[in-house]
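Weekend entry, working from home. Most of the wet-lab plans are on hold until the incubator is repaired, so I used the time to fold the two sequences that have been sitting in the queue since the last round of cloning. Logging both here for the record. First:
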Amino acid sequence: MSAETRLSVVLLDLDGTLINTKRLYIECYRQAVLPYVGRELTPEEIMALRPRSELRFLTDVVGHARLPACLEDFYRAYERLHDAYARGIYPGVPEMLAGLRATGARLGIVTGKSRRSWELTRARDELGEFDVLVFDDDVAEPKPDPEGLRIALDRLGAEPSQAVYLGDSGSDIEAAAAAGMRPAAALWAKKEAEHAEFLSRVEPWAPVAFTTPADFARWVREGAGRPPATAEAGRA
């Protein structure tokens, strides 16, 4: 990547990329929808529905009419269960964020998490300040629709060519490519045995992939020309 297209904006997914909330979400979804579907969904059933967005997942399961009540049940469960089920910030992420901020790049979060859930999380997991935040509440369609990423770029007055989006899911990678941004894959939340299958699945969008937060921060700091030797690379 040339100096003329050096990255000046780093947008980040939240859950599964910066913080480990998979167990928390599975349990909150399970408890929230129980009164509406009449049985406990298994973790496998929940994950099979590919929950990319709080609002979309709950709507798909309980329907629009029952969404407001179910959403309140979800938020109560999220607050009640957070400390027992959430596993906090991934190792290396605070240092990654500090390194990214030191480059002078503007940082933002674009997430399928709602603003209310973010406030509950932020009170427990300190990630610092961001230049832009785009939540599930802000978009009509969740990722892989690029709407949230485009909103973030618009708020920052930035062009897609100036930005990278780091996420842990196929929908993150696809959304970044659809927005015209550089897609980057965070592999640290996945088991090593899952890396090859995931990279094969997202290969059409040519992400650059990283096994540690430090690798990603180094890549941005060095000008995002190519992944460092320690990173697992998609096609740059």
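Second, folded right after the first finished:
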Amino acid sequence: MVRTRGYVFERPRSEPPPATDAAAWIAGLVPDDWFTEPPEVTVDREEIVVVGRLSEPAVTGSDADRAAAESGRITQFRETTRERRIALARQIEHRYQRKAAWGAVCGGTRQLFTTLAAPVMTRLRQPERRVLDTLVDAGVARSRSEALAWCVRLVGKHTQQWLDELRDALSAVDELRRRGPETG
């Protein structure tokens, strides 16, 4: 930030370095005995989330018993790997200039640990604000911000295939840009 005569100006944020190799680099960084398969790595402009699959506990019983055992396995992983995950997160953050977060999947249970909640500025007209206010009034959300996040999750859930196709198309455009035109 720059202060000039009482005004505060945000410096333009530079784009972080590309993270096209993040999944492979992080798979090599993570100890082999942590997960049963290479971790899932999700990257955006602000954060890299690393989620690994843990071995399932041998529990018989109800679905609730199984879910409790899975949650316990994730909690045990989180506590016993905390110091090492912090050290690895620092390396990830240094290399890719994004925050790093962790998570684990065990059976049907998925938990993310301390992920980033990035503020997003938007301007909404009255019809859009009324949608958010209705969700707040109905108790679906506690605030307009939470209602907007709920809407984004709902759209993402119901349009996942289309969003995946769109991301693939954007990746193809990025590749074409990277290669650039042939100049002879």
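Plan for Monday: verify the second prediction. The CA atoms of residues 46 and 115 lie 11 Å apart.
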